[in-house]
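## Example record

The block below lists the input lines for one assembly entry, exactly as stored, with component labels intact.
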Amino acid sequence: MRVLLRLLAPVLGLALAAAGVLLAIEVIVGWTRPGEATGVLVPWPDWKSALEATTWADPAVLGTGFGIAVVGLLLVLLGLFARRSDITVIAPRADMTVTMSPRVLARLVGQRVRRSDDVASAAVTASKGRITVTATGWGDPDGEVGAALRSSVEGTVAALLDDVPLTRRPRVRVRLAELRGPR
Amino acid sequence: MTSEPTAKTLDPGGDPPKRVPVDPALRRRSRAAVARSYVGDRVVAVVVGLLLIAAGVAVVLLSNGVFGVGRAARPVLDPMIVDWMTANPMAARLIAIASGIVLTVLGLVWAARAVRPEPHPDLPVEAGGDTEIVVLASAIGDAVAEQALGLPGVGKARARVVGTTRAPALRVTLWLADDSHVADVLEALQTRVLAPAKEALGLSALPVAVRLELDNPPPPPRVT
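Predicted structure tokens for the full assembly:
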């Protein structure tokens, strides 16, 4: 979203500027050369007759109105969602701000969780409010082995969150999957 | 300013330092240094979007005859407006030219603001007499990054001066090694890198934003 906004901002600005230049040039040329039947770049006499022939009730006008509103909605959503999703870590000093991206937190959690011998593989997603760990182990996830694996993964993540103190401690969710086959 | 000695007299093995009350402005500056702000672009995008939504909805309503069936049946380029323009050609031209110029200026300003690189201010250092010493932003950044690279647990480091000459801040990006302890690295960064840098530059305050990344782990052995 932020990249899109970053790309879109200069493009929209330049488009706006180009439209303004065109408008000014067309008017000045039309003023200084009154006899001309057509504009410099824009065929405005054709546009004028076309616009005079269409009424507001025309389906094309309705469609254009919808189109404009949809583009506006997309721009509003882009502006609202182009926020940083940084996770803040408690800093040793108040004039220090420490942040990491959710991706980094997820990698940290993943590394710790995978260290355990009982975990065959793990997938982690992290956000400001929640860490979800999907750990794959051996044995029935709903049985005793699964319960032990779950508590060990939860303990690992809790220990990591103690090591990396976040300003807002996310909730941790552990999901288990079973890997069939020899260990 | 704030109680500066804390940075030097920290007991490395003791409790985490007590939070000294810090000027909220410093906190704001350190938070602003985290990344370049896109607030301006976002506000413009939302405002332009809202205007477009309003215009689009107005057109749809007009087209559906909400403002009167007779209104909807009139041409898009209303004869009333055309008549007014032929009656007052000079005013119409001036309005059109003026709005063209306004659009051009607004568009160029917006585009220029969007593509302008983030400023990295050089910092003046206290010098006697009429000598003026300026430390380049790149030099400060490189020096801090090199110092930070020497800390245990840091695999790669980068530092930039951001903000303004009068209110500078540091943006430090640390790529942590796998087994590093985040709190220890931050503490070491403060005492061994940032406090000396602040002193060397003769600054009363140097807010800092630290961004943590993970260093790429070395490739695993091919044979196990």
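The longest strand of chain B covers residues 154-163. Chain B has seven helices and five strands.
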